[in-house]
């Protein structure tokens, strides 16, 4: 089922140099990674989906709603965006108030917002920090607070911008677990990300942006099979994919488990 439809979308900040040119795609329920080198237009694209920027040309529909005609409040219910830099999002005096803020703004009553905030904080492993001032937290914790704030709003579509930056192994595992849980709740999870290992493990579909254009849209395995596309977009395949190729396998492995099973079975070498 199509959740987001993008048709002939173009955008420029200065109305001269196009930052996005003629993007057409359909997003369904599959978890989707957005990759591409710095400046490729990824953040601009998700800001357009959220209605924070207006297209110069083209249409975006979230379900049946045209983003152009929707109010910011109605879009906030449908699309949650976790910014790359948590300081752009955090301003309340306690972690709990911060995480409740968006939910209250959407019209949830205090009790529901409190429950949602508590659950969201547990899901990112920060349940014990609800009375702390967010400014006293580490960058990794602040990022997870900003993730929890959006999760507590319970939108149908959740978009992350670089969720794994500043996360150690445990933080990444927590985010991986959260993403899987959101998928099980039938949310569309999208992320802008430079960490290809994380893409391989968590995202079924991948969009490759290059210089404002959609260079490839496909299953993550198919994208990581395309050396030519990766080269053009200045991307390195995940480490496990590279190792599989160096070992002479024809398959594109996405996880260590797949590589190990390839080694055990002899694979296609
Ligand atoms: N507010 C702005 N005003 C003018 N130009 C901008 C603005 N924001 C981004 N740009 C320019 O638009 C282009 C695309 O930027 P965007 O942030 O969308 O890329 P990106 O793929 O998300 O990059 P990154 O991976 O570095 O976040 C870049 O050339 C950038 O300099």
From TrEMBL:
A Pfam family cross-referenced in the UniProt record is ABC_tran
Q: Which UniProt keywords apply?
A: ATP-binding, Cell membrane, Membrane, Nucleotide-binding, Translocase, Transport
Domain of life the protein comes from: Bacteria
Q: Which residues cross the membrane?
A: none
Subcellular location per the Swiss-Prot or TrEMBL entry:
Cell membrane
What SMART domains is this protein classified in?
AAA
Q: Gene3D superfamilies this protein is in? A: P-loop containing nucleotide triphosphate hydrolases (3.40.50.300)
Gene Ontology molecular function terms on file = ATP binding; ATP hydrolysis activity; ATPase-coupled transmembrane transporter activity; cobalt ion transmembrane transporter activity
A GO CC annotation given for this chain: ATP-binding cassette (ABC) transporter complex
Q: Where is the ABC transporter domain?
A: 4-236
Q: How does it sit in the membrane?
A: Peripheral membrane protein
Q: What family is it from?
A: Belongs to the ABC transporter superfamily.
From the Swiss-Prot or TrEMBL record, give the protein name: Energy-coupling factor transport system ATP-binding protein
């Amino acid at each position: 089922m199509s959740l987001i439809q993008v048709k002939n979308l173009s955008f420029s900040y200065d109305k001269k140099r196009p930052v996005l040119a003629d993007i057409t795609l359909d997003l369904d329920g599959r978890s989707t990674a957005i990759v591409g080198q710095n400046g490729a237009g990824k953040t601009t694209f998700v800001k357009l989906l959220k209605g924070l920027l207006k297209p110069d040309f083209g249409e975006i529909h979230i379900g049946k709603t045209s983003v152009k005609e929707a109010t910011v409040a109605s879009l906030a219910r449908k699309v949650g965006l976790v910014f790359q830099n948590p300081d752009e999002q955090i301003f309340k005096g306690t972690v709990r108030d911060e995480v409740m803020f968006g939910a209250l703004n959407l019209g949830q009553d205090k009790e529901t917002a409190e429950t949602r905030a508590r659950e969201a904080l547990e899901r990112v492993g920060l349940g014990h920090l609800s009375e702390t001032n967010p400014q006293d937290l580490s960058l990794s914790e602040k990022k997870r607070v900003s993730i929890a704030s959006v999760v507590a709003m319970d939108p149908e579509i959740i978009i992350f911008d670089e969720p794994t930056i500043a996360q150690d192994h445990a933080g990444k595992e927590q985010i991986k677990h959260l993403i899987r849980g959101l998928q099980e709740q039938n949310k569309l999870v999208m992320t802008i990300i430079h960490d290809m290992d994380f893409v391989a493990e968590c995202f079924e579909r991948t969009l490759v942006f290059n210089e404002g254009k959609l260079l490839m849209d496909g299953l993550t395995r198919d994208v990581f099979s395309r050396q030519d596309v990766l080269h053009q977009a200045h991307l390195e395949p995940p480490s496990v994919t590279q190792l599989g190729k160096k070992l002479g396998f024809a398959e594109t492995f996405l996880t260590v488990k797949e590589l190990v099973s390839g080694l055990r079975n002899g694979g296609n070498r």
